[in-house]
Amino acid sequence: MADVPVAVIGGGVVGAAVAYTLARRGVASVLLEAEPDFGLAASGTNSGIVHTGFDSTPGELETQLILRAAELRGPVFEDLGVTLRRCGAVLRPHGPDDASIVREIAAKAAENGVETHLAGDGALQVPGESITDPVAYTHALVAAAEAGGADVRTRARVGRIARLDEGLALGLADGGEVACGVAVNAAGLRADEVARMAGDDSFSIYPRKGEFFVFEPPLPLEHILLPVPTERTKGVLVFPTVDGHVVAGPTAHDQEDKDDWSVRPGAYDEVMVKARQMWPELEDCEPVASYAGLRPAGRAGVNYLIGPAQGCPALINVAAIRSTGLTASLGIGEHVARLVEAAGVELGAERRLEPAETPAPAGPWWRRTAEVKT
User: Which band of pLDDT confidence, cut at 50, 70 and 90, is reported for residue 374?
Assistant: First the structure.
């Protein structure tokens, strides 16, 4: 007999949003995070930018979930007491080729139903782009899920998966075991490894490193400054944080080592030559900190792999959720809840979870994994 209807593997922002959504539907779950705290990996080392989906490819699952999350976000952030600052963004072209790309992006935004304004100088203004504290948000989701009946655990690394007559048995590295009817694999960089424990080797995850540099600016930055994207990357951004700092980044360095969170020696010059062109006020500034995030990217450009594992329908993969995971998290949670229901778990009527008291993370979110300059 199962200990719990659903086990969620991974306590980053996506796993936390799944546990939160299930709790809102009255489903008991256990949230298993391998690290000592929630949101320590990719979720706590991103930009903290909450996107509108203005530049997302129309019709793709990722885009659908981003747009759905935008519909859900306001009341949830209010319930959770998490800051969401609608600062807007500006994407400015620097030549005829750029201007053409910006016009294409504006057309894409219109197709996605996202408000943008194309200025006379060719700059695209995106008023809905926002910033938040991704660590505080992840913690608030976990706390609300726990208040709604979820069992949340840290230092609970899943080391093996065995099939039961009805469901799965998750063997933990500390020797414990959790029996569940359905497991949700939201293990981020390790999602491919978790899937293989259940016999699904259909995909693999590699880490795409994004390096960032944090500044105490000479004056406030009011908007997110966006570069014209390329086919490979959205490029280096300059953006404010909710605590008043300014960040430049990220890079997009593909690597194989899932444990290398270091900032490469050449990353600073790679970022700053572009960042200072976008915001000259950084010219005489020195960073107060730097950090690197590892985005869980899918091979061959395949991302947002969400669905039952091959050969093991009791395991639902939520894998290769790249940097838009923060933005799409609530949409992902709702989508996964429907997959859990299709797997045989009954969902109750949606309810509002009372905001739970949760200790605020110590210091700015970016400092948790930052290499602080002294």
Answer: very low
Contact predicate 369/40, CB 8 Å:
yes
Question: What is the CATH superfamily name and number for domain 4-372?
Answer: FAD/NAD(P)-binding domain (3.50.50.60)
Cα diameter, the chain = 65
Q: Name the residue type at position 182.
A: V
Domain boundaries, the chain: 4-372
At residue 70, the 3 state secondary structure works out as: helix
Residue 169 exposure: Cα atoms within 13 Å on the Cβ side: 9
β-strand 124-126 against 89-91: which pairing, if any?
A: antiparallel
The token duo for 336 is: 């996964």
The one-letter amino acid at 113: G
Contact (CB, 8 A) for 238 and 247 = yes
- The encoded tokens of residue 338 equal 């429907």
How far is the C-alpha of 56 from the C-alpha of 58, rounded, in Å? Answer: 6
Q: 282 in helix, strand or coil?
A: helix
- Listed in sequence order, the residues at least 6 apart from 55 whose beta carbon sits closer than 8 Å to its beta carbon are 105, 108, 109, 229, 234
Q: Residue 368 CA to chain centroid, in angstroms?
A: 16
Give the C-alpha separation, 13 to 224, whole Å.
22
Neighbours of 63 (CB within 10 A): 21
Q: How many angstroms separate the CA atoms of 208 and 297, rounded?
A: 6
Global pTM exceeds 0.70? yes
- CA-angle at 48, arms to 226 and 324, nearest 5°: 75
Report pLDDT digits (tens) over 212-239: 999 999 899 999 999 987 665 678 999 9
pLDDT bin (cut points 50, 70, 90) of residue 367 is confident
- What lies within 8 Å, CB to CB, of 198 at 6+ separation is 161, 163, 168, 309, 311, 312, 315
Collapsed DSSP state (helix, strand, coil) of residue 91: strand
